[in-house]
Here is the input.
Amino acid sequence: MKDKILPPDYDQFSIEELTEQANKIIESLETENDLNNSVERYQELLKLNNIIQKKFHKNFKSIGEETNKKIKEITKKNEKTA
Here is the structure.
């Protein structure tokens, strides 16, 4: 269980792909008998969780900015027609 599941460059992976990798780590932790390996895997899971959270917040912010931009465009169109 020493194989590296975590990719070297996280930006190229979607939240769904990273979540799938986190699920694989969880599955391996559930079947692990050696506590030393469990600690390493758990630390990988924590790092991956932080990355997923950052990507989620980045996507959330991007969606909010895009929505605000569209609302402003619609408002401008309504003001011109009024």
User: Anything to note?
Assistant: The radius of gyration is 20 Å. The mean pLDDT is 84. Residues 6 and 21 are 7 Å apart (CA to CA). Residues 14-81 form one domain.
